[in-house]
Amino acid sequence: MSQTILITGSTDGIGLRTARTLADLGHRILLHGRSSSKLEAAAAELGGGIETYAADLSRMAEVERLAAEVTARHDRLDVLINNAGVYKVPDARTPDGLDLRFMVNSFAPYVLTNALLPILPSDGRIVNLSSAAQAPVDVSAMAGKTRLDDFAAYAQSKLAITIWTRDFAARHPDGPVAIAVNPGSLLASKMVKEGFGVAGNDIQIGADILTAAATGDGFATASGKYFDNDAGRFSDPHPAALDPSHVAQVMQAMDRITADLRRKAQTGA
């Protein structure tokens, strides 16, 4: 059965390859990216029937606009793949004074998903991109008060989205299903090339597991779980994600920071 699937950060890398894989299976793909020209090129590469949405996920107003545009055109979204992510960037500070890795990798998917919940059915799926790189979250850094190096910021942002995935599943026991996935370490993406200086492994490895997480029977009852594609199985995330005290601190901070960002975006402050 054809499904409607939104993939953030899908103009290149794992996102684009996943979009191509799912489109070839007959699903309706909604592409997202920052660049309109890259979106047009990606849509042309995939063929007819592709919708495109341009938004800069480092800006909360654009995250909310993206959600509004999708809901205006669709009354049902079967799958949301929160793929967009950043690692090493020239300027890691957002206009709001936050670390770009937390904003794009953690806060944007959190707000986007909640904004799209009204059109995500109970049997729908949310696939959140995690990573083998996970580290306990410094809440001060999350709030932009402490600066981190590239790897620390990335690893903490990925644990944050993994923690939130588990929290979401607990808060929504009747669905939609939410899954955190490490698509595979050092795949041949732009992020890996720029961040680690290596060519990387076949990117189809990541696209295949994201396709399975989005549509496969093996993930239909896996809400709240973390799939480690390096190991090829569901496994526990970093121990900090299993610590109730740490989870509570991270979720309280995420709720507080995103609420403040949304208020600023709505008031233009």
What fold name goes in the CATH topology slot? Rossmann fold
The average pLDDT value, as a whole number, equals: 94
What is the H level of CATH, i.e. the homologous superfamily? NAD(P)-binding Rossmann-like Domain
What value does the Rg take, in angstroms? 17 Å
Description:
The chain is α/β, with parallel strands linked by helices and about 270 residues long. The protein has one domain (about 5-265): Rossmann fold (3-Layer(aba) Sandwich). Helices cover about 45% and strands about 15% of the residues. The protein contains 9 helices and 8 strands. It has helices at about 15-25, 35-45, 60-75, 100-115, 140, 150-170, 190-195, 205-215, 245-265; strands at about 5, 30-35, 50-55, 80, 125-130, 175-180, 225-230, 235. An 8-stranded mixed sheet has the order 3-2-1-4-5-6-7-8, with helices on both faces. Helix 1 crosses helix 8, helix 3 (about 60-75) runs parallel beside helix 4 and helix 4 (about 100-115) packs parallel to helix 6. The longest helix is centred in the last third of the chain and has 24 residues, at about 245-265. The mean pLDDT is about 95.
Give a topology summary.
Elements: E1 4-7, H1 13-24, E2 28-33, H2 36-46, E3 51-54, H3 60-73, E4 79-82, H4 100-116, E5 125-129, H5 139-142, H6 150-171, E6 177-182, H7 190-196, H8 204-215, E7 226-228, E8 233-235, H9 244-267
Parallel strand pairs: 1-2, 1-4, 2-3, 4-5, 5-6, 6-7
Antiparallel strand pairs: 7-8
Give a concise summary.
The protein is an alpha/beta fold and 269 residues long. 46% of the residues lie in helices and 13% in strands. Helix 1 (13-24) packs across helix 8.
